[in-house]
Amino acid sequence: MPHTLYRMVSPVTEFDNKGNPIPNNGEERVLIGGCFLHDVETFEKQGYAGTGFIPTYYINLNKNYELKHGMKVLVDMNGQEISGEIGDIRHTSGFVFGAMSDYTTIYI
């Protein structure tokens, strides 16, 4: 697959010797796997009118149930990075052209 999908997570909070939390400024990447990133077409954006969420990209990947609405994700396209929060998830399964189709589409 040409692109790589990561889930962004906040690092575990560390505490000083007095028990006060030490602030974390960054996020860590957790590898999800290969994916395909696509631009959302205008007619697809029209379907989200009035929902409060207008997607910019959609990402196709193998079935993955650990992804949830609101999670931050990052797609690495050979050095170029695109990130966003998951606003919609669609799990698809069934037969397409005689072959089993089992994948997830997320919209950011």
Describe the structure.
This protein is mainly beta. The protein has a single domain, classed as Thrombin, subunit H (Beta Barrel). It has one helix and nine strands. The strands form two sheets. A seven-stranded antiparallel beta sheet has the order 7-6-1-4-5-9-8, with no helix packed on it. The longest helix is centred in the middle third of the chain and has 5 residues, at 42-46. The mean pLDDT is 85.
Brief overview:
With 108 residues, this protein is mainly beta.
What structural category characterises the helix and strand content?
Answer: mainly beta
CATH topology tier name: Thrombin, subunit H
Main β-sheet description: 7 strands, antiparallel
Counted up, domains total 1
Q: What's the CATH class, please?
A: Mainly Beta
Find the count of extended strands (DSSP E, 2+ residues). 9
Key words describing this protein structure:
single chain, 108 residues, mainly beta, Thrombin, subunit H, 1 helix, 9 strands, 5% helix, elongated
